[in-house]
Batch of 2 targets.
Target 1
Amino acid sequence: MQPQKLSQSTLSALRGIVGQGNVLTSDEHRLCYAYDAQRLECVPDAIVRPADTAQIAAVLRLANENAFPVIPRGAGTGLSGGSVAAAGGVVLDVCRLDRIVQIDETNMLLTAQPGVVTAKLVSAAEKLGLLYPPDPGSINACTIGGNVAENSGGLRAVKYGVTGDYLKALEVVSPLGEVYRTGARTVKSVAGYNVTSLLCGSEGTLGVLTEITVKLIPIPRFRRSLLAVFDTVRGATDAVVAIMTCGVLPATLEMMDGMTIRHVEQANHIGLPVEAEAILLIEVDGYSDAGVAEEAEIVRAALAKSEASEMKTADNPADRERLWEARRSAIPALARARPTTMLEDVTVPVTALSEMTLFIQQMAREHSVSVATFGHAGDGNLHPTFLADDRDEDEIARVKQATAEIFEKAIALGGTVSGEHGIGMTKTRFLPMETGPATIEVMRSIKRAMDPNNILNPGKVFFED
Ligand SMILES: Cc1cc2nc3c(=O)[nH]c(=O)nc-3n(C[C@H](O)[C@H](O)[C@H](O)COP(=O)(O)OP(=O)(O)OC[C@H]3O[C@@H](n4cnc5c(N)ncnc54)[C@H](O)[C@@H]3O)c2cc1C
């Protein structure tokens, strides 16, 4: 591990801001913060754990004076290397800011500090009959700050949208250490540039989010879940298009391929059809039992015309929960299979899902690598997950080649290299392929204007030679 590079006077100044016990410099601590949920190792020089906005602002002012990088971090569940120290410096762990500040039941708004775990936010709203819809698979661990910084999606995005669709207002510490507010608590606001949207998905490179206001909706109390089984992946992807055009918008439309099904079943013994080559997990929801029953019937009719070999309805809450637990456990189950899991995040129009999925399988065969694919099929968002061993350099090189070709294909199909996990460190090379140089220059000029000393999360989003 490389030695810690911050000077003693910088470390004492940091201790003066956040207190002795909240500056961590031991090798053990630095190693613990050297990873997110990707496999890159980037060891920070120190970890600083502020208690409030004023301390965060003071850390950033010091960073500008003494020229060290600051990397905001929530729970570290990111999948693109966003919260690790690409160029050394201080990891700013915001998890002590973990308070729900206010729930305004009548205006259906919730204000929280960034370190609030998303599941805790959801359950606080649920107690009042309200729903915060974005539900990333990592909901029990990730933070609302991380969700906003990544503009995270989730299982319900196909009907309810992603984090940014619920974001109303922010308190932010700028890279220079100034505190400011953006957005409004009203249903509508067009007052000036939409800085709130700019910060949403900015991956910790343009500001540290210190307070977040999101809108809530009444809980859709009625739901029906369906499982459809297919002998081919193509049958499943064709059925996705049939469902998306049947006149009903499902709340959730997820797909798992055969390899994913078998790994999930091996890990969790849920009773999934292990002979199948693909399954779709579908849920419809709404505010009236009869309406939801009717919608479920329409989806069933669309599936009946597809190549589904079997359909099951999960009628009771326990069966339903088992189905969704199966989907949520896809990443942990696959991660048990081989020493290294390399999970990707391509998104294409749903009409291109078949071609994209078959191309992923073709790449696996051509490059002799092992890939399991699952994802938010209704969003066209696929997670091809390579199961490899990073002690085998040749295998990793083949995975990287297959991944690059998959990204190229996604772009050619009118898709994107990231539907929800962000660019971070892992996709900087691919972003220009999607956007072109002029768009990258717009992004760079925003970064330069807001962070002239390149303090916040350097080495992310932009490719550096
Ligand atoms: C099992 C599993 C399932 C997942 N499922 C999904 C899914 O369904 N959908 C999805 O979108 N993602 C998913 N993810 C990815 C990840 O959970 C999300 O990106 C999540 O939003 C990250 O939150 P975090 O608190 O862990 O943030 P971190 O990983 O700590 O940070 C992520 C990024 O946000 C920045 N950041 C964090 N907090 C702040 C802040 N307060 N201010 C400014 N910047 C900040 C960091 O610098 C970094 O760039 C999954 C990950 C795992 C491991």
Note: The pocket of flavin-adenine dinucleotide is lined by residues 36-37, 71-79, 82-83, 94, 114, 136-138, 142-143, 145-147, 149-150, 152-154, 203-204, 208-209, 331, 420-421, 457 (CB under 6 Å).
Target 2
Amino acid sequence: MKKHLLKNKVHKLLRQYYKITQLEKKFIPGKHKVRYSGSFYGSEELIQMTDTMLGGWFGLGIKGDMLEKALSLYIGSNSTLLTNSGSSASLLCMASITSDLYSDRIEKGAEIITPACTFATTAAAIVHMGMTPVFTDIDLGTYNPNIQMIEEAITPITRAIFIPHTLGNPNEMEKIMKVAQKHKLLVIEDNCDALGSEYDGKKTGSFGILATCSFYPAHHITMAGEGGAVFINDPRLHRVILSFRNWGRGCWCTSLEKDRNGACRNRFNFKIDDIPIDHKYLFLTLGFNLKPVEIQAAMGLAQLHRFPTMASARRRNFAQLLRFFKTYENLFILPRSLPKANPCWFSFPLTIRDKVTFTRSQITQYLERHLIETRTVFAGNIVRQPALRRVKYKISNLLTNSDKVLKDTFFIGIGPHITYSHLQYIQETFDAFLSRHSRSN
Ligand SMILES: Cc1ncc(COP(=O)(O)O)c(C=O)c1O
């Protein structure tokens, strides 16, 4: 049989296989888990990944280039570089802004403002690159620092703000950018939870000089299990990040720019001390290898194509839960966003109010027993985590709200896998627990 006919057959089988798995997945309340998140894909993702495997090119290649271009277009960033995770993207951001390859580099030892309520690797990237994190508190409900908290943290040696849009909820970007401009600070957005979120009509991830994104399956889209990206808005940083990502190499042409044999056109035009050097082995910096592989890019392309419908499902589910939880506003601080924000929420966070008669352990254990998955907001207050014990850091103000998150906040899922029947079941299960406690509060 001809290759292309065989391929069509494989595609058909994949579609059939996918259909069967979907039938098996029909949600039965109380029997199946209500996952807090997880990969959500169709047969097109399976076809794209299979085609990549059959094509026999496994390292990052043309599909990687295509996804980088598509993401730049989607976010509105100057360029994009794919990585193997969001954590790697954070590391690359911090490595590049302190590198002597960057003319506006910040010195090692500088202070970087970032909230204490964060994901561990956001703070880790600052520390690993030899800078000092200065932790601010956050507001409850938005889970982001307000502008006063950020301003209070500025000292003469502050050089940057590394700001997560926590759980997809956009920060007050116009105020942050103004403060940053006034104090000559770089802004880097941690956009790992926030693909599709907007502030004042502009995508988050397009405000700072750099922004990160994660494609771990829990996030808005995935690249076959792991993945990430750096969105780059200062073109001078593109080659610096490329070099750090690719072993420290100085070779920067894309797969599309290479010749028919996949070779760099500038390969033999370089010298070190008059010795001709293969550009592939010209090292500009001491870098890392943080590349994803082509099969991940193939899935990412199909996921990005599907993303608009996935994003509207997230928004629909979030709105429904917000309506539902209004009845219980006496028990919980509900999530809220700023007037100019249009979040594409990662999840639905709830903070138990003070003096409520149940604890977080009681309600989350009850939910888990009823197969509704819960998670806490990452590190809570990171300075209380064992990992920070031997690390140099500063706190700019009391971390009262971050402590409250550590103790009393949890979230449930709102991803596109959550259907009307899941929402019904979530509401009934919460009602059964909370109706008892509403009366006693
Ligand atoms: C806000 C935030 N930043 C960074 C990361 C790290 O991303 P990854 O898991 O892809 O390394 C996460 C991960 O969940 C996150 O939620």
Note: The longest helix spans residues 294-325.
